[in-house]
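Quick check before the chapter quiz. The format below is the same one you will see on the exam, so make sure you can read both the input and the output lines.
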Amino acid sequence: MEDNEGELNKEIEDASEVTFVEEAAELTELVTLISESKGAPLPTEYKRFKQILDRYQEQPQLLDPHIEGMVTPLTAALRELASETETIDLSSVQRVSHAVHILSTVRGHKTIAQFFPHEAADVEPVVALLLLTKEAAPPSGAVILDDAEDLCWETQCILLLWLSILVLIPFDLATVDTSLAAPAEGRREDTATLVERIVQVSQDFLSDPGKVRDMAAVVLSKLLTRPDMGALLHTFLDWAFEVLASDKQDMESVFRLPGAALSVASIFKQGGRDILLPVAERTLDAACALAASPSAERNGLVRKLAVRLISRCGLTFLAPRVAAWRYQRGSRSLLHNLLESSGKTAPSSEAVDPSADESEEDFEVPEKIEDVVEQLLSGLRDKDTVVTAPYPKPSHPGLRDKDTVVTAHYPTPSHPGLRDKDTMVRWGAAKGIGRMTGRLPLSFADDVVGAVLDLFKPSEEDGAWHGGCLALAELARRGLLLPERLEE
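Here is the expected output.
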């Protein structure tokens, strides 16, 4: 037992002393071997590749000088395989994608995506290959017996990540659509365009319970927020709102609901305000209805995504601005502190000027912002809402019962926020409160801070106290908790 502890401590010490990639030369050799073999079965090499990269899970930034040298040849091999549409070997594609996915897991997909090929000619081959992997994938819930089937979802993740870069080409996607280039008399009416195929396959992947769903949401957010995709964006939102309003409990619907919520939230993160503002009010109504639905009450992930969508709708209503009244810490010096302690005066380095918000009088806060803040502040009590026997069930989780005689328990309505029983939901609500408060004038922002402080009451559950702490920490981090409030 002591020997095992000693080995573990030694491994921890060795890991803490790593300051560069010691196996850089070996990684280069492995990448060259994998890329030149175009995904040939090399189980030992793939295992060693993963073993080396796993060592840098806690310090992935050490890989940055070598990322381009690893991603470029692997994606070049993947690109060459994708161009072989007639004689393509899916198992080879899966093995190369497996190596790229290992890099994505360790360093993050946003970092490695910068080095993916992004030529317009790659769009159609990637979409065709993605459709091929979708057809070859095992059905949902099937028992996977073959390693090739197990690698299928990794292939889909990497192809969707690649597609999220390709859909950003700076000209009309119709110009690279060969189906539109065919003569009109020889073209079938039911033939889907390239953009329609991308949207359809991404929508289908939103029902996936794993990382494929996340990548599909990224593709949809990048594609539908293009300036030339206005009509398609409205069509997709109509479909998404139908999914959010549905309460079906079959397996596909259960997984599709968070996928639709995630995709809409990603759209509101990626898109410009001029594109999203016309649909923001309708989206907020759908998000609030989702937060109060039975699906949200049963599923913490749905509540988390509902809170995220509500906060992003609120940010869309408010124009981006930097609050001039925020607390700016300024610089600190030992000399400054010594002069203060000795009673001598020194120039103040703090910049706290709440009256500096010159545009506050001209700033109009949309009416919907009050609803957004209320949704983020109100939330579930931990398990039950307690009321007296002859009185009806409270209509809102923020209502408090007047009587002290308790004889009945009712389930809490689903209004996720700072009072939610799940930490991830409270954290999302706290971040939303912080981001929106930074765009409000001082008088409105002070009301938000006061509402957060109201959560610290003996009558509140521990979830509300924790949510309040998270919100105060977020406000303080952004300089939105002014010194005048610190005594409270």
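If your answer matched, good. The chain has 22 helices and two strands.
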